[in-house]
Amino acid sequence: MVIHFTCNGKPVTVDVDGDMRVLDVLRDVLDLTGTKEGCGEGECGACTIILNGKTVNSCLLYAGKLQGAVVETIEGLSGDSAGLHPIQESFLEEGAVQCGFCTPGMVLSTKALLDRHPDPSIKEIETALSGNFCRCTGYGKIMKAVVSSAEKLRDSREDGHQSGTGLGVKRG
Amino acid sequence: MTTGISRSVPRVDAYDKAAGITRYIADIPVAGVCYGKLVRTSISRGTILDIDVPELPEGFWFISEGDIPEGGRNRIHMIKEDWPVFTNSEVRFYGQTIGILVGPDREQLIALADAVRVTYREQEAAFTIEEGLACRGGALHGDDNLFADYCLVKGDPESAFSRAHRVIEDVIETGFQEHVYMEPQGITVEEQDGKIVIHASCQCPFYIRKAVAPSLNRSLDDIIVRQAVTGGGFGGKEHFPDIIASAAAVAVTKVHRPVQVIFDREEDMCYSTKRHPSQVIFKTALDSENRIIGMDIDARINAGAYESCSPVVLQRLIFSSNSVYDIPNVQLRGRAVATSTIPSDAFRGFGAPQGIIAAELHMSHIAREIGMDEVELKRSLMVSKGSRTITNGTIHETVKLHEMWQRIAEVSGWHEKKSRYAPGSGRGMGAAFYLHGGGFTGSGEQDIIKARVRMVKRDDGIVEILLSNVEMGQGLQTTFRKIAAQVLDCDYRDILLADPDTDRVPDSGPTVASRSIMIVGRLVQLAAEQLKHKLHEPGAQESEAAYTQPPGCHWDQETLQGDAYPAYGWGICVIETAVDPDTCEVETLGVWTIHEIGKAIDEAIVHGQVTGGVIQALGYGSLEKLELKDGKFFQHTMADYIIPTTLDFPGVYSELVENPYPYGPFGAKGLGELVFDGAAASYAMAVQHAVDRTVSRIPVTPEYIMELKTHG
What we know:
The complex is a heterodimer of chains A (172) and B (712). Chain A has 172 residues and is of the alpha+beta class. Chain A has 6 helices and 5 strands, in the order E-E-H-E-E-E-H-H-H-H-H. Chain A starts with a strand and ends in a 14-residue tail after the last helix. Mean pLDDT of chain A is 92; it is low at 163-170. Chain B is an alpha+beta fold and 712 residues long. Chain B folds into 3 domains: 25-123 and 179-271, Aldehyde oxidase/xanthine dehydrogenase, molybdopterin binding domain (Aldehyde Oxidoreductase, domain 4, 2-Layer Sandwich); 278-441 and 561-711, Aldehyde oxidase/xanthine dehydrogenase, molybdopterin binding domain (Aldehyde Oxidoreductase, domain 4, 2-Layer Sandwich), CATH 3.30.365.10; 444-546, Aldehyde oxidase/xanthine dehydrogenase, molybdopterin binding domain (Aldehyde Oxidoreductase, domain 4, 2-Layer Sandwich). Chain B contains 18 helices and 26 strands. In chain B, strands 3-5-1-12-9-10-11 form a 7-stranded mixed beta sheet, sandwiched between helices.
């Protein structure tokens, strides 16, 4: 079926089986491989994307659901030249990235949380990230990164700046 | 503020990973690829009578034992010739590889694999340590089912037991553990210029080369292994990639197209290797004053159906079974038992956690029995510089455990809480002390690995490090560069260090055994020091450093006597728990750790490893239950095998104590496994205190606590 949706701010049209997993549409059709397959059963959160403002496990979602939807993937947070989003910067600064396989999903769950709650409590952060498994970090530095990105985003809002442009972290 | 090499810097791999740019093996498209699907046995023990493969569509193949190239061995070379690549007769465990179906469509492959019909003659199988020791169904290995049977004697245990006033006995048991690296196993194998090129998510590129070459009857140089970005390993990508690579490589020699095998999570959880279950029986002799005068230890591990690295895991377990204590007279027997389960293999800690958990719980049980404070009992027996080890070697370094204890007791509020929480009050405190020997056990580094590191200054002045250890999340891409940059006095980001390719790097050994920084990092430092002298000479320059045993270390592999490790990392983990009186659910209220690893190469990376290791160990100690049912793992998805999430444990307090090691880079010792070794024991002891019962196995689940409270 022909599906029209918005992906990372751009209109996209794909012609795929309606029962193809959204994860496969992103990875195999659109070559957006930042979205990872960790379990294929909606448990680990490595395939997290933001669909119409809410996080979903793209491994559990069929392509038909994309019709008319607005999708954000990790690739949409940082353009090749735009630098990193403040959330990604915080993940770097706090040392929250280790093997990296869970990182895109973690970053997107963080973004969806902070879009809703600019000033979340620790408990709210823990709950928002509880569907994203990480086996390397023990979550300590990830929690710090979320707290620090919330502060950063609040500061930039107060300063009247738009989020999404680099704050000095360059590709290593 | 931290200065020098310990000062944290941004990780070199983090930008691309956070941006989603990094390509893992499953993210890299391969032109003309055939996917591979392993066809496996559906019984645990017996004989294959017939394999009926459905008619295959054009472009699909079934590859099995008969497809191994002429002269190739149907045995995967691990530590020795080990698992068969494919079986067409003897079945030793459920899920053993019969063949590999390859073809261009993954869904069709699954359907075809399901349609393969295999007829068996089934045989009675042994699954547990006890069944293995009893040779249930007849011996699987030799005539006694023992892959290894070791004895150690320190002092005069016989005399100690004859003088004993009383003997305290214990049986401590641990279960399987699944690695759950976030990225499942994956490899791509292809032919390039007459050679076989293997791209693998792996820890040990040279292991894969060694494993695959004999099966193809090709020279080592004909096999090239290139590490793909690796999304976690924890030991699970030490030997297991050999298994997949061997099957896929045979397929490539037959179909002459690239073959890619990517496991889905269920396949990974069902059929990849696990941590060895263990059973350690302690008998401790006490004199009339309740002083410990001798110990008898009988340690058994469930090795599974093939030997793999089980004897070496067993060695580390038994060498760790006195943990940080200097017990005067000890006799020990250790056995690696063959059973019809998937071969157990490497997992962070490599036997040490099982030995340390047993030692810590047993010591706490002795303290309970004799009415002594468990920490005071442990502190009265702690090793110090010059102490004799269980292998009659020597502790060569200053041991700082007493000052570390003072510190961690203070920050955790140990004394106040310990006196406030009466045993059985529902609140509990646990403290585990532990050590971890850095590098390969015994003379492995010197006699087997013989690590080499090369460093080059290219024509254009850029410096490149060439070695075979991999980045898998633990930070080596950054820490190796930092070591070289510190010597060369340059920016670490200006140094090149590619993911290893066996065709262009020397063999600096596998990424295992907490050896990468202590052993290989030291060679990076030495190679950089040599290169520094030539840095301003024109043209390309090169340096190389090779491992040599630190002076004063002696080891006899035949008798297992001497210095099992040249140096140790040391740790203490304190845990506070609250146990719900009705549901027996445990809330962990605090986790405090202190570690001595010589010198941190990067503090942020070290604290990340500490927290990650501690939380993984808390999963092992409390949540991660993996049971066998008729030889199959009962839990096989992330929904039923539970690993810690953000909701399960509080933040981990992590402090470091310096004690530079003269033969490590800038004083650094091993880290990665040490931080896994203590938390499970600490958790078990905290629960033990809270419910005033003797905990003797992990994981300590609410069901187990309920059982303890009901039956004592």
